[in-house]
Amino acid sequence: MRFFSHRKHFSDLSEQEIIALAISSEEDDARIYRSFAARLRGEFPASATVFDGMAREEDQHRALLITLHQDRFGATIPLIRRDHVAGFYGRRPVWLQGSLSLERMRGEAKAMERNAERFYLAAAARSQEAGTRKLLGDLAAEEAGHQLAAEGLGQAHLTEETLAREDDTARRQFILTWVQPGLAGLMDGSVSTLAPIFAVAFATQDTWTTFLVGIAASVGAGISMGFTEAASDDGALSGRGSPFKRGIASGVMTTVGGLGHALPYLIADFWTATSLAIAVVFVELWAIAWIQNRYMETPFWRAALQVVLGGALVLGVGVLIGSG
């Protein structure tokens, strides 16, 4: 016995409703591909061409389905969509997000075609009515044809050189929008909070007071760095991407950098907390050096020397001021 639902089960659909569902699905897919193409046209024209071609393929299949419906059931097509049918494959509306990476769009397109084919194959296997079974099998074949068409379009427009160039562009954009602001924030949070935190620690030898100062310094620095990064460049001319994203990356990583060596002061014993905090500082500094080497192509030992030496100097200043 089925629980009450406002959605119909696929097994309860008539052949006319199945065709109508396929028509609406093809129309939705074409719109999604066109939205991908519109977003990519400026920076990734070759991939945009691929999605334009896939949208045209969906339009052709929709036209064939409409002709089939008119021949069998007339011109009035029932209004039925994916979310009206229980058990129909769902799709998260990721294409509504403000920005999707090129790789994410390619992945979504592959998943759309693959999931549609799987659904129709499974539905055909469950169907007991010959006409419906044939129709679902034909739809599965159409979806398989979409995948072949997509591969053909990719081969025509996305050569290895083009793919490498577009992937390199996407990587550079990721670095400009997320890595650079995040790295700047992590460096600022890890280094700039060393002096006040350790100065308070050695001046008071009170772990709770040191913890409160560390939290205040870390959160305050994070808010300041986040707003500064967001306000410094709207990204329109520099191509650095959304100021909101850059502000989030910078602010969050600044706070994380300061919290790393503030949290050990939740330990009541002063020397245990301080020893752990110093160890965390060196882990943070080595992490900064690794990020510089990984994304900024800075030689690791040079990055490590610069960061660790600078951090050690600031740490020493804080200890000296606090001890005095």
Describe the fold and architecture.
- This protein folds into 2 domains: 151 residues, Ferritin, core subunit, four-helix bundle (Ferritin), CATH 1.20.1260.10; 157 residues, no CATH class.
- It is elongated and about 95 Å long.
- With 324 residues, the protein is mostly helical.
- It has a two-stranded parallel ribbon with strand order 1-2.
- Helix 5 packs across helix 8 and helix 5 packs parallel to helix 10.
- It is built from 10 helices and 2 strands, in the order βααβαααααααα.
- Helix content is 76%, strand content 1%.
Straight-line N-to-C gap = 79 Å
User: The biggest beta sheet, please?
Assistant: 2 strands, parallel
- Which geometry do the CA atoms define? elongated
Count up the helices: 10
**H-E order:** EHHEHHHHHHHH
Q: Uncertain spans, ≥5 residues at pLDDT below 50?
A: none
Task: Count every beta strand, where a strand is a DSSP E run of 2 or more residues.
Answer: 2
Quick tags:
324 residues; mainly alpha; Ferritin; 2 domains; two-stranded parallel ribbon; elongated
Summarize the structure.
The chain is an all-alpha fold and 324 residues long. The chain has helices spanning 15-40, 45-73, 102-126, 130-157, 160-192, 194-204, 207-232, 243-260, 270-295, 300-323; strands at residues 8-9, 85-86. It is built from ten helices and two strands, in the order E-H-H-E-H-H-H-H-H-H-H-H.
